[in-house]
Amino acid sequence: MTAPHPTYEQLAELPAYAEQPVPIAFEDANGHLNVRHYTGIASEGLDESLVAQGILQNWPALGHACFSAEHHLTYLAEMRTGDRMSTRVRLLGRSERAAHALVYLLDETHQRLSFVMEEVFLHIDMSTRLTAPWPEEVAAALDARIADDAGLPWEPDVSGSMALR
């Protein structure tokens, strides 16, 4: 059994990334944020959150990249055009070549959790385009962030469908 989702108030205490209103171009025929954009916004927030761990936006130019390996997506509340949103991230763990994260999309307008993306992502050596061990300084920074996030006062709401190998 998985833990319940954290509350909006719990998540709002984490740093905010990818803060923006839902643009009209992201609306679908149902009048809400199209399904494909939830993942894109969550991914953008995850990328922003990893800069502090040394995973820079220009990392591919430096010979490294992160590639997604697995996702589990949970849609909880619709977002409509103009609603303010933000992304919050909790790192769960890492292995020699991969990391596991929970990414939350908050509906700031209605103060609720809208979407959860659980992801496993891989470190890639761009010269071979294959997985490679995390650079030492990035591994240390990821470990420190994972330890900090492990101290949060709520259990991670993992899907149970993925894990580090």
From TrEMBL:
InterPro entries documented for this protein: HotDog_dom_sf
Recorded superkingdom: Bacteria
Record's protein name: Thioesterase
Organism: Nocardioides euryhalodurans
